[in-house]
Structures are given as structure tokens and as C-alpha cells.
Amino acid sequence: MRRVVRQSKFRHVFGQAVKNDQCYDDIRVSRVTWDSSFCAVNPRFVAIIIEASGGGAFLVLPLHKTGRIDKSYPTVCGHTGPVLDIDWCPHNDQVIASGSEDCTVMVWQIPENGLTLSLTEPVVILEGHSKRVGIVAWHPTARNVLLSAGCDNAIIIWNVGTGEALINLDDMHSDMIYNVSWNRNGSLICTASKDKKVRVIDPRKQEIVAEKEKAHEGARPMRAIFLADGNVFTTGFSRMSERQLALWNPKNMQEPIALHEMDTSNGVLLPFYDPDTSIIYLCGKGDSSIRYFEITDESPYVHYLNTFSSKEPQRGMGYMPKRGLDVNKCEIARFFKLHERKCEPIIMTVPRKSDLFQDDLYPDTAGPEAALEAEEWFEGKNADPILISLKHGYIPGKNRDLKVVKKNILDSKPAANKKCDLITVPKKSTDTASVQNEAKLDEILKEIKSIKDTICSQDERISKLEQQMAKIAA
Comparing C-alpha atoms, which of 401, 397, 440 is closest to residue 419? Predict the structure, then answer.
């Protein structure tokens, strides 16, 4: 019997690295031993965790700032320990969260045109973990809801708008949490843990809805993510250290819907999922390839499509949201691959002859508008993402500033580099006090500026004198 080739519009997807001048060069990518992606991307900025002496830092570059990045380029550097994970807010392209070895989560607001000075003051510091925080993940549909998971085996869900920890799941995991993933409407989370269990959790009821022991039998780290249809996709290792991928139905986790063995490499497979096309891209840390698969309703459910291969191994990987892609070039995914000293965009394209908008490749996708306010979600409401059409390309709108109201009014804009006073002031404190404080702040800022100006002019004077000395010596 003749074997019929499966019909799929994604069979010929191919990946291509951009030219050298479109890469971000001379970046010292973090060497910290942690299995996060080290890179986060949105339609405005690319953020990369970097090596930093005496604390933790990450770079935030406007997408167009390609080429060599100067060593003096400003960073986001408020953490006192290495940064382990970063995540852009899906509802505000200027807000990013970071988790660190210093046990804190910080939320930052990046000025509209990128950083001109290093940013040391976050909009809010979220303190509640007793050990390092390795995972941060924003809620997909509710504004200002952020999840963090630490090596204290606790998951905390924060209302960033008030700076409060509203849900603390600290007794569900007996061992280290490898990753956490929200489902499509943010009503459930799934986690992969060092105890080899995959759990599906309802965070508001604080109960485990489903769990699977030994989802993958190997000892190396697993990953679990939710798919749009509610199934869970996992990557892990077999007992013989072969890399595996599996598909599970949370309503019946006894047996996987599908289980595939891949190869014997030992890098953790980071899955990136596109709910619009049902494609999963697997990027192994330390691999030099990206494999991609299509998930369908027909057996074998997980269909291998192709592999993008290159020479250099990847230290981390950023994944652009759908609204940041070039629809005119039939681009269906863009990755930002981290090398040791640079970040290289890789573009995935479906070859099409026509220049017209391909509506079968670009169904309406999740837009930047939040479907719920934080309070509504914590009260029990659910909502699917608000979808937008990409037919005429995505034009980023104006983002509103992230405002944090910590019982007293706390409203800070880092563009003005004002310090965020994170101590809650008694409610009686009057407006006059805040006016005085503001005046004092302005004074301090002016003084700092004049000192910096003096230092700059002295630097110039020193270099001129050194040049004169060099001439005399010659």
C-alpha cells in the first residue's frame, strides 16, 4: 500500500538566521547554572540576562538596536544576586518582571524609547520567597497578575498593582519546581517538579486537579506546558537518559496520548508553543538545533515537521509573540538565540508565492489588551484572551504606566528616575509631606546630575592631560 504523506501547510516551514549586522553583538550572556531561557522578547524590546559582578543584571535593547552593544550600555541592575528568569508583561510592552537569587521578584518599567541610564529602582519589589526565585510568569489574560516560583518549593501569585501576595501555594511540591505554565485563560497552572510529577493545579481553589507520577522516568529536568485545547505537553528523559516528549489529557493522566523518544543528548528541552498554528518548537540548552512539531487530533498526535540546524550551541532562547512578526513575509515564528557573546535572531517562514495576507497562517491572535482586572480574577472570574487581527500588521499602541498602589499612593515613573519608597506610610500622612518629599527628591536628583557632569568633565580633562603626557614622552 502506498504511504500517503500527511497534508499540512507547515510541512515546509524553514528557519533562517539573520545576517551578522542584524545580530546583537558583544553581549556577555549570563553563565549562571539555571535552566531558564535567559531571554525575553516582545514587539518593542529584547531583554537578555547578562554576567554582572556584584549582583544581577539584564540588558533591555530596542529591537532595532542591532550591531555591537557598547560595554557601557545601561542595564537593569537592581538585584543583589544573579537574575535567573525574566518575563515581559503580555499587556504592557514596557513592563518586565525578574526573579533572582536574592529571593525577590522585581517589576520594572522601561522608558518608551529604551534605557538611557541604568535602571536601579523597580516599580515594585515583591518579597515573600525564602530561597532564590527561578521562575516568573505573567497571567495571560488578567492585568497585573504575576506568578513566581522559588527553590523554597512555593508558588506565589501576586497582585502587582498593590504589591500583595494573594495566593501562596507552599505545600503542594515536595521538591524543586522546574517550570510553571498557565493555561489559555489562566484558570489553571501546570508544573513539572524534581519529584518527577506533573501537576495540574487550580490556584484559586488551592487544589491539585490532576497529577501524574513519573511522567518521565529519567532524573534530569522536565518541562510541562499547557496547550490551547487544555492538554498538557511535557519534555523529559527516559530511564536510559533518552530525551522524550509526551502529550497528556489532564482528565485521564494514567497513560499519555502520545510518547516519543528523540535522542540521547543531555540538554534540557525548552518548549515554545504557538497556539494559533499548534506548533511546538523544542530548543535544547546546549544544542545547536531547533526541532518543531505540529500537534493535531489524529494519531500519532505529535507530528515531526523539521529541524533548524546551525553550528553554534545555544545558551538560551527568546520567543517573539505572534503580534511582533512580519506577516508580509509569511513569518510564523522568530527566535532570539543566545550564543556566548551575542544574540542572533532566527526567522521561521512558510514559503508562499503570493504577497497577499495569508489568513490561514494568521488566525486572530492574543492582543495586548487584558480581558480581566486583577481583582476580578482573584474573585473567581475567567476570560479568554482578547484577540486581534494581524491583517494590516500590528501597530503597538501607547502603554499606560504601571501604577502600584500600596495602601498609600505609590506611583513612580523610572523615566524621571524617582526613588520608589516601598515603606508603607501611615494613612494620616498629608499631601504637604509628599510635596516636601518631592521637592527634596528633586534637589537630590539635581545634585546627582551636577556631580555626574563634574565627573564627566574631569574625565575629559584627565584624558587630555594623558594625551599631552604621551606626546611629551614620545
Answer: 440
Nearest alpha-carbon partner for 213 in 187, 231, 229, 236: 236
Q: What's the grid cell of residue 147?
A: 506568578
Q: pLDDT tens across 331-348, in order?
A: 999 999 999 999 999 999
Interatomic CA distance for residues 184 and 198, integer angstroms: 18
Range of the domain at 456: 442-473
Measure the CA–CA gap between 284 and 288, rounded to whole angstroms.
Answer: 8
Q: What 3-state DSSP class applies to 399? A: coil
Tell me the β-bridge partners of 223: 235
Q: Which grid coordinates are listed for 434?
A: 509628599
CA distance 97 to 107: 4
| CA–CA gap between residue 82 and residue 57 (Å, rounded) | 7
Rounded to a whole number of angstroms, the CA Rg of the chain reads 24
The answer to whether the beta carbons of residues 276 and 365 sit under 8 Å apart is yes
- What cell was used for 88? 515581559
Closest CA to 221 of 180, 182, 179, 189: 179
Task: Identify which of 325, 232, 221 has the alpha carbon closest to the alpha carbon of residue 270.
Answer: 221
Longest dimension (CA), the chain: 89
State the cell numbers at 309: 540546524
Contacts of 310 (CB under 8 A, 6+ apart): 17, 288, 289, 337, 346
- Whether 44 and 62 have beta carbons less than 8 Å apart is answered as yes
458 and 377 part of one domain? no
Q: 172, 201 in Cβ contact below 8 A?
A: yes
The span from the CA of 64 to the CA of 60, in Å, is 12
pLDDT in tens, 230-249: 999 999 999 998 999 999 99
CA atoms within 13 A on the CB side of 78: 24
Q: Model-level pTM?
A: 0.83
| Spatial contact of 157 and 166, defined as CB atoms under 8 Å apart | yes
- CATH number of the domain enclosing 98: 2.130.10.10
Task: Judge if 359 and 459 occupy the same domain.
Answer: no
